[in-house]
Design goal:
It contains eight helices and eight strands; from the N terminus they run ααααββαβαββαβαββ. It has about 250 residues and is α+β, with helices and mostly antiparallel strands. A six-stranded antiparallel β-sheet has the order 3-4-5-8-7-6. A two-stranded antiparallel ribbon has the order 1-2. β4 and β5 form a beta hairpin. The radius of gyration is 19 Å and the shape is globular. The termini are far apart. This is Histidine utilization repressor.
Length: about 250
């Protein structure tokens, strides 16, 4: 059973380089349920078009009032994350962005194309037994490989990259110097991607990501979640955070 937790507890979990901040107010229960639903969708547990648990099931799962669950689902429907069908239930909305619209590009190449200098700061490069990452990569057991990197353009951070990698596909991942070559460039050079799936969100980052992107409190991010395959294996699952004021997404169909 999931339990509704205090946002202060969640926001002060240990992360690389994390420092204490002013305690936050408790996150409303409906907001925590919204984040739970979004996480299950972003990690691929609940698929586009699929039926999610009913209000009654979520009430039992979280131990909250029905009106709390109803508000969470209603707001997610308004935000087009979910679709509610009278008499049938609540479904994950179809993806708003298809992978065919987006080209997987190396951020260092994008920055160079603008005539600017790319730099990278590696925050984390380690094995990980994170259960959600293992599930996203389709691994029965760990470890997976984990990296967190801040990419900057002319010294200004424009992307926070949180990536999990399948060691079966890239066994020497942890031995690389990602200040010299980006993970994207390294992986495509070794094993070209066969297919990918994307999800894109407008989100407010947590305090840790916000600090590393040098963002103001309350400034939104464009968050891209992407999973890629090499052959039949999931190669990587990555979240990319971009400050909305310093980044835009463009593509050609």
């Amino acid at each position: 059973m999931n339990t509704i937790t205090n946002a202060q507890t969640a926001d002060t979990q240990d992360r690389p380089g994390r420092t204490a901040e002013t305690p936050a107010k408790a996150m409303p229960a409906y907001e925590q349920i919204k984040r739970y639903v979004i996480r299950r969708i972003s990690e691929g547990d609940w698929k586009p078009g699929g039926l999610i648990p009913s209000e009654t099931e979520l009430v039992k799962e979280f131990g909250v009032a029905r009106m709390t669950v109803s508000r969470a689902l209603r707001e997610l429907t308004t935000e087009r994350v979910l679709t509610r069908v009278q008499g049938s239930g609540t479904f994950v909305a179809p993806q708003r962005y298809e992978s065919t619209v987006l080209e997987i590009r190396n951020i260092a190449d994008e920055i160079a194309a603008r005539g600017h200098r790319h730099s990278a700061r590696v925050l984390t490069l380690e094995p990980s037994d994170d259960p959600h990452a293992l599930e996203a990569l389709g691994l029965a057991n760990g470890p997976a490989f984990h990296s967190c990197i801040v990419h900057s353009e002319e010294g200004e951070p424009i992307q926070y990259e949180d990536r999990y990698v399948n060691p079966k596909v890239f066994p020497e991942y942890l031995e690389q110097d990602f200040t010299v070559e980006t993970p994207n460039h390294y992986m495509v050079r070794l094993a070209p991607i066969q297919r990918a799936e994307f999800r894109i969100y407008a989100q407010k980052p947590d305090a840790y990501v916000r600090r590393h992107l040098m963002m103001d409190i309350g400034e939104p991010c464009l968050q891209l979640w992407r999973r890629t395959w090499v052959g039949d294996d999931v190669a990587t699952s990555v979240q990319l955070w971009h400050p909305a004021s310093r980044f835009h997404l463009a593509g050609n169909v």
